[in-house]
Design goal:
This protein is an alpha/beta fold. It has two domains: about 100 residues, no CATH class; about 260 residues, Rossmann fold. Helices cover about 40% and strands about 15% of the residues. It has 14 helices and 14 strands. The chain has a nine-stranded mixed beta sheet with strand order 1-2-3-5-4-6-7-13-14, sandwiched between helices. A three-stranded antiparallel beta sheet has the order 8-9-10.
Length: about 400
Amino acid sequence: MLYHAYELTHAALAPMKALCRAENTITENGLNPWAETPPGRALHAAFQLFDGVTGRYGRPAWGIDETTVEGAVVAVVEEVQVCSLFCDLLRFAKDDDVVPTGTQPKVLIVVPLSGHYPTLLRGTVEAMLPDHDVYVTDWRDARDVPVALGGFDLDDYIETVMDALRFLGPDVHVMAVCQPAVPVLAAVALTAAEDDPSQPATMTLMGGPIDARVDPTPANMMIAGRDRGWLESAVVSHVPWPHAGVFRRVYPGFVQLSGFLFKNLERHIDAQVTYFNDLVKGDGDSADQHRAFYEEFLAVMDLPVEFFLQTVERVFQNFDLARGTLTHRGRIVDPAMIRNTALLTVEGGRDDICPPGQTVAAHDLCPNIPADRQDNYLHADVGHYGVFNGRRWRNDIQPRIAAFMAENSRAL
């Protein structure tokens, strides 16, 4: 019923949305004689604000067409390297005539499967592109995957990372941003236990819940107190028709989004008020920046229910990895097996989702990595989003990660 209520709400808003589009067409084409009057600008701004906050946003495009390498502008194209049911391994390939394949270190960025589309990490990719051959896990929206094709759980997630590492080879550097920190550490530990040649040269874990017992946030404590039955009845729903994944059980993206919104409700309300005032004043640049951010922020995808419930249980309730009880298809995951992969952890001092201490806990789990091949970087002035996006990410954090990769590279 949860998903159906969501769909019915949007259906009920359809007439008002149509009115917003009609008003915008009339105003933008100069057919509204009152458009430049104060009341006209205020009315136009109100329609645009309403249309924006009630919009349904699809999967955003990466929109990365070029980068700069050693001062030269280089064309970039997206290439799907490996295609699977719930994930594409996507490469941002540079013009081979300018930057020949194999001349830059390979970096696998494992993107969160946590409600937003992978494109939320566009800034992460853009900062890594000039000096690295970048690959990302481009997750598929669960509501677009037919239920007859099967499910996807935490074990499948770990296997997806291992498959990507095997495809890319032993000289790759792997980065996990937020939620993937646990499955990436597990994947690297499993490849190490097998003495697999695909073990990455370095592993960078950024703002991830390696040990969610450390300084738990209110969200951590809330989810820790909810049993599986409550979660299935309160936040799990079936995908409705006409989506391709009709009847699939999912954790809907709009539920996750509502949590993000209410967590910082006052800040989001202030942002909408500022947007309205910018529209009235005719400050197009500020209004465009606001729209670009919220079109990305409000675009959400559904999670397979198996993955969601297992992640809650194993990561945030039982703390399996930190306690040494995490398994993958019946095998114990032992990070102590990692010897050949350098480890860097990155935390934000103002991170209210994965606070300092939760990610750095990875070092205690990996005692056999030589001390000179381990490092932790705590940036005191960034929150969760700032760990992987924004000015401080570009100027402070990314250069530290790039330097760590270069110091611990096996190739080039």
